[in-house]
Amino acid sequence: MEKLHGVPESMLIPVAARALETYEKKPIVKDPYSEKMFRKLNYDFDQITKDWTTQLGISIRTYILDMLVNDFVKNNEKAFIINIGCGLDTRFDRLSMKGIPWVDIDVPGVINIRKRFFTESENHVMIAKSMFDYKWIDEVKSATFYADGLDILVIFEGVLMYFDDKEIQALIKTIDSQFSNCKLTFAIECCSETIAKHTSKHKSVSHLKSKPVFKSGYNQFKEAQKWFPKGIRLEKEYNYFDYFHRRWGIFGLCRYIPFLKNRLNNKILVAVTKR
Prior knowledge:
Helix content: 25-40%
Strand order of the largest sheet: 3-2-1-4-5-7-6
Number of strands: 7
Oligomer: single chain
Structural class: alpha/beta
Distance between the termini: 44 Å
């Protein structure tokens, strides 16, 4: 496997987490695709697979995003998915989305690895570009299955917390303006501002060889509006503590204490264009 540095290396954490969750007696998610990659990728996973909370959190985020994707496809006849910073996400194949237009976007090194395990198809393409190289937008619009008037779900899973507020604001503003003829829904994994200030204490990310750093997060739901232009409204937040309470053990009690719930776990933020 080619060497990964910085944020791209972090994609190996969810692969390991989903693979190990698949082995659980009552798994939150079963992911044979991740299990296969976990076995075949030439990487020392030992240091990033020792924390049960990371495995649980990633399994829950997978569960939540699976639910959101399935609901979006069910409720929108013109559903179109853009998965930005896709890493080695398995959702397109795992949820059998072969009839849904789907674009996976990540840097060239990541896409090269993806293509060892996944193949493009008539409705599924992979774009090898940084999300800040906005030429990817032209490639999306040139796809045969793209058209104005689509209902687009934009997924950011495990990626935006590695960038600062100004970078996130510019990225979302650009996507909003460039797809102004479509209705956009954003599903974004976010960490808390508290967690963002303590990457060194994260029991998996801190053990990555390239030591990427969290740069953004929010504690209170309304604070997330800082990333979005006026034409996009915050719709809902899914906090991981609200799911699979027994698996959290004593940490599950945090769901009853807003101060801790808002600061000690990640969440999926959903925002929607008003047009």
